Amino acid sequence: MRSLLTLRYVCLCWTAFVVNTVTHVNADTGKALYDASDRGDLDEVKRLTEGKCEDVDKPHGAYNWTPLNIAARENHTQVVKLLLSCKPDVELQSTVGWTALHDAAYYGSLDMINSLIDYGADVNIQDARGRTALHLAVIGNRKEIVRTLLKHGADTRITSKAVETAGDSAEKGGFKDISNLIENYSLIQLIKNETEDTISRLRHSIFVVVISFTLVILTLVSSMIGVSLYFRYKLGSMQHSLDRHAVVFQNEENRQSVHIYEN
Ligand SMILES: *[C@@H]1O[C@H](CO)[C@@H](O)[C@H](O)[C@H]1NC(C)=O
Ligand SMILES: *[C@@H]1O[C@H](CO)[C@@H](O)[C@H](O)[C@H]1NC(C)=O
Ligand SMILES: *[C@@H]1O[C@H](CO)[C@@H](O)[C@H](O)[C@H]1NC(C)=O
């Protein structure tokens, strides 16, 4: 009896230990991946993501940064690339609304920006203050990153909550080169837009013309068919009455000839 109780006790302890360890390890791995990404410890990130990526989107730290956010902030380009192979959600935003691309635009390398864009990061997401990655690259005076973002569709018309476009921010910061660059791209965007607009309007007009033309042709053909059917009917009935007259005439003639004969 005593030994049975002891055995039960041991079993309970063992279960508690196992459960504890597993939950503990789980809580730790999320943080471990975050910490390794923060440090830029490529080997550790590789080890922690080998065959399992469940911690890649877990937020940590003061502003709910994901491992990707923190690696971008700390300019660990290789770690960012490795984390991307884990298929993270790059649209996740920290407490202040920064995506990994925001962090990269302000703190990271051009190589990192290209990797994020190639992965499919949306370049026009706005943070809690309405700023896009383009705004942040401008504020950081990072011309090559500004150029890359523009090349990949960054919208120069988006205004922050301070009602500033990225171009306004550049002028305010006194970044003449960046300001010119944005102006050129705005112009290109405008021309592209108008060209697209003209083409779509033209396409629309052509469509309308083709439809109208088809309708006209259909109307013409159907009225011609109608007219010809009408005349055919008219001719038919004329023919009919002519035939009838001919029969009457013939009868009359016959009667007269009989008459003549009788006389
Ligand atoms: C980030 O790292 C790259 C080299 O990988 C360096 O050229 C760049 O200046 C760094 N960015 C910042 C903001 O320190
Ligand atoms: C903007 O365009 C002008 C004229 O096309 C060109 O001379 C200038 O170098 C461009 N500026 C930038 C910053 O690309
Ligand atoms: C481009 O066209 C869209 C509608 O097609 C319009 O809302 C937008 O203002 C245009 N962009 C520019 C730069 O004019």
UniProtKB/TrEMBL annotation:
Gene3D superfamilies: Ankyrin repeat-containing domain. The keyword Membrane applies. ANK repeats lie at residues 63-95, 96-128, 129-161. Keywords: ANK repeat, Membrane, Repeat, Signal, Transmembrane, Transmembrane helix. The chain crosses the membrane at residues 206-231. Pfam families: Ank, Ank_2. Residues 1-27 form the signal peptide. This is Ankyrin repeat domain-containing protein. It comes from Meganyctiphanes norvegica.
